[in-house]
Task: inverse folding
């Protein structure tokens, strides 16, 4: 395995482990999701550079745009939950209640 591939796969796995094991605050979950998306973006960018093909050149920008949309939706949910519940702890949220 190439050291570059190892670095990006370990960055993605660290973000996934942070999301799985550290689920106390919504903000920390959103930061772990953003770290995972950033490592995927960089890996996809390097993959398109290694292929030397223009067919896949729009893929990293499209993924970055979807990542920005996901981040804005997550921050909107963070603001809404902190206004209604007073904090961003995931244990205080009851998802079954209207």
Result:
């Amino acid at each position: 395995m190439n050291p570059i591939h190892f670095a990006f796969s370990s960055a993605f796995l660290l973000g996934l482990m942070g999301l799985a094991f550290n689920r106390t605050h919504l903000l920390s979950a959103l930061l772990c999701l953003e770290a995972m998306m950033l490592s995927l973006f960089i890996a996809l960018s390097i993959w398109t550079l290694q292929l030397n093909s223009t067919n896949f050149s729009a893929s990293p920008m499209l993924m970055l745009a979807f990542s920005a949309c996901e981040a804005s939706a997550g921050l909107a949910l963070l603001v809404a939950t902190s206004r209604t519940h007073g904090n961003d702890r995931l244990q205080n949220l009851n998802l079954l209640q209207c």
Remarks:
- Helices lie at 3-21, 26-51, 59-85.
- The mean pLDDT is 86.
- Residues 22 and 60 are 28 Å apart (CA to CA).
